[in-house]
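Record format v2
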Amino acid sequence: MRLEFFQMLDRVERIDHGSQAIVAHADVPDSSPVFTGHFPGHALMPGVLLLETMAQASGYLLLALDGFSRMPFFASAKEANFRSFVVPGTHLRIEASRIHQGSGYSVTQAKILRDETTVCDAQMMFRTVSFPVPALAAHVQNEGKRLGLLPQG
Amino acid sequence: MDSTFETVAEIIASTSDVPIENIKPESHIMKDLGVDSLAFLDIGFEIDQRFSIRMPIEDWMQEVNQGDADSAEYFVVGKLCGRIDDLIANRATVVAAQ
């Protein structure tokens, strides 16, 4: 994870096109300016960044399922639960699956686990639209390559 | 069994701040009921799930944005219910043909 760059996923373990699911991994850094303010003397991974981590796993799942042809923009989260604290240095496993493909939108169910314990979960909705600018398409494709979702080169 | 209108009105009321008694067949979902685009996604998701259909919202919006159709054709509650009934009937036809 590079929190300051909103790069929340370190690697993708697998994508299953049949069940429309992704498993990804991320390591919370030992130190980050984020922890300076959240919180002094009691560093915790902010819930909004855990939500972003689930959104990115869901987003790359949708990108992969749609052949990186449409950009998923995070639109809403339903029943987001933060069940326990996440501290610096924690290894996280992120799981997400598409539960509905609508017309111009998709809905996922996502969760983050520490060991076998769910630390947060949410149902998330994404608008899926054409890439508004080429730079964004290039960025997600580069990230897709870094995560092993697209071939290098 | 609830009619399509009763189910759709219940979905709109439960996913927005619109009192169910204000929802009429002639109500325009956006213009009369004040539903915004994000709330309409929630409504669309619930309708898709409840009726096991996939409303072609993108195609409808494209027709409206291009001036090929009036938004009332798709987003007045009564007309939306008619389109849902058509999608259900079409789904049943497809299933029967398989």
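Chain B has one domain: 4-97.
The CA atoms of residues 62 and 68 of chain B lie 8 Å apart.
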